[in-house]
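Students often ask what a holo structure prediction actually looks like on paper. The answer is less mysterious than it sounds. You provide the chain, you provide the ligand, and the output is a string of discrete structure tokens encoding the 3D arrangement of the protein together with zinc ion.
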Amino acid sequence: MNNKEKLKVDPIKNGTVIDHISAGKALHVADILNISDTDGEIMIGLNLSSRKMGKKDIIKIENRNLSQEEAGSIALVSPGATLIIIENYKVVQKEGIDIPEEIHKHIVCPNSACITNIENVSTRFKLADKNPVQVRCGYCEKKYSIDKIKFSF
Ligand SMILES: [Zn+2]
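The corresponding structure tokens follow.
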């Protein structure tokens, strides 16, 4: 392993690594995870070369586990992402994340006229298309590309 590769895989003791994020999507993933509220070490790698993907992004977050909702939202933004859980410098779990068929609460509807933005109603979105990912609001029934979506946790 040369020095350059070593830097990229600088280990964390405990926490979560989100690997194989589509290049350019890491900052969107970081938004979903609201990482400014995390006090552990965070490493974000952008446009790293990957044998499998050409280019990829990666995020490592110390002392943080993801909820199922957070993992599902990451899969919407970057369907090929891999979730790796690290304990005491060892990989204890490594798995792809499934795109959820439904997302409750965490998506903000981009339609300002939607009832979810007017009254205190929790949003409910369904997956409308997988490639590219599109979701449909359960209230105004409009379909949105995932790039137009804001998440809130
Ligand atoms: Zn809506």
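The pocket of zinc ion is lined by residues 109, 111, 114, 116, 137, 139-140, 142 (CB under 6 Å).
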